[in-house]
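User: Let's play a game. I give you a shape written as tokens, and you guess the letters that built it. Ready? Here's round one.
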């Protein structure tokens, strides 16, 4: 029993000494290496853009007697909030911690073996290392080269002409998919310029025609100066449009943009033995009037119908008929309640008749402008065109 109490007392004494050591306010922290570096911006693959990369930083921690303090946690933080600093691989935080080794040395090297990256802006970045109220500050210099006059060129994907696919998945009435567009940013010597922001802008698409180019998001040129945008996806119209890539005014006002034109064609006239005729709804004249479902004035057209028969004149049941507004000028067309797409599909009944009536019982709304609105109905082997008139 006596021996057990003696062991317990010894443990208490040792733990008390340990706690006292780490609460000691007489520690001294000094910089060992990495202070006053000057690093230039260069393309950094881990970041995906130019960055200034700094070599590891080290501090040493000793107690009042000059002995190294091991196992102490040193906190590191970038203090210049006006600059973007990344210290860790996973989170890219501007702060982290490291532990002193047996020699009392703590190292900041968690960014792929480096101390940290500085991105976006050059200048002086200060890094503070601290523990138990003791701290030192490193001063590091990030140098960004002056802007180089640069411009974009289109490597591939310019001036495309594609055909409407009436069966494009998830888009009633079809859509048009273009090939990717590969751009390259080059300087006056023809060398690729990395790390520049390039943003798409769609021009001249009429109202109602939807053009998706990377959802409008910008992309960054790679180390060769290249950037590849997904091919535009277009639905709701068949008019030509322009995709422009102007410079990002926030960061690259010295850059010159570039544009290219995309065109859409309708599928060739169908061939085969089936035929289609207009049953009803052609050549309507409807006045613009408030439409509560649309929230604006529009011309509402009565249902329209077509009939599909085979070469023997028998009705073709179960055929899918594609309907699409061939939009004119500034006119816009909405055929469905939920999405207001200017295109949809319907199926022929046992009499071979397909009806367009999905817009709250109407065939479609025409809005924004008055004029002549054409609607194309087509199935695998036949097509017809309705001509409708929207007036004030």
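Assistant: Ready! My guess for every position:
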């Amino acid at each position: 029993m006596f021996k057990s109490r003696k062991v317990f007392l010894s443990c208490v004494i040792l733990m008390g000494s340990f706690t006292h050591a780490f609460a000691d306010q007489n520690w001294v922290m000094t910089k060992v290496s990495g202070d006053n570096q000057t690093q230039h911006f260069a393309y950094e693959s881990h970041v995906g853009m130019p960055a200034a990369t700094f070599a590891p930083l080290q501090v040493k921690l000793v107690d009042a007697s000059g002995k190294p303090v091991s196992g102490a946690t040193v906190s590191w933080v970038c203090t210049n909030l006006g600059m973007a600093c990344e210290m860790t691989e996973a989170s890219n935080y501007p702060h982290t911690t490291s532990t002193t080794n047996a020699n009392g040395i703590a190292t900041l090297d968690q960014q792929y073996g480096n101390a940290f990256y500085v991105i976006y802006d050059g200048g002086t970045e200060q890094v503070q290392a601290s523990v138990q109220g003791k701290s030192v500050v490193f001063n590091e210099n990030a140098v960004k080269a002056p802007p180089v006059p640069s411009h974009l060129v289109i490597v591939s994907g310019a001036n495309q002409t594609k055909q409407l696919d009436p069966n494009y998945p998830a888009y009633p009435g079809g859509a048009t998919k273009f090939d990717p567009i590969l751009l390259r940013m080059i300087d006056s010597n023809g060398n690729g310029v990395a790390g520049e922001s390039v943003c798409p802008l769609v021009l001249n698409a009429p109202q109602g025609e939807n053009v998706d180019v990377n959802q409008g998001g910008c992309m960054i040129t790679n180390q060769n100066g290249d950037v590849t945008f997904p091919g535009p996806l277009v639905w709701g119209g068949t008019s030509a449009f322009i995709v422009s890539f102007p410079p990002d005014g926030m960061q690259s006002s010295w850059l010159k943009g570039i544009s290219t034109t995309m065109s859409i064609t309708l599928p060739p006239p169908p061939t085969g033995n089936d035929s289609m005729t207009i049953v009803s709804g052609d050549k309507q004249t409807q006045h613009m009037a408030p439409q509560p479902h649309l929230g604006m004035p529009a011309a509402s057209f009565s249902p329209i119908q077509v009939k599909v028969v085979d070469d023997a004149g028998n009705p073709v049941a179960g055929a899918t008929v594609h309907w699409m507004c061939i939009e004119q000028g500034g006119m816009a067309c909405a055929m469905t309640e939920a999405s207001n797409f200017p295109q949809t599909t319907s199926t022929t009944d046992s009499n071979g008749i397909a009806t367009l009536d999905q817009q709250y019982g109407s065939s479609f709304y025409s809005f924004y402008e008055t004029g002549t609105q054409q609607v194309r109905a087509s199935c695998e082997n036949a097509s017809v065109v309705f001509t409708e008139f929207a007036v004030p």
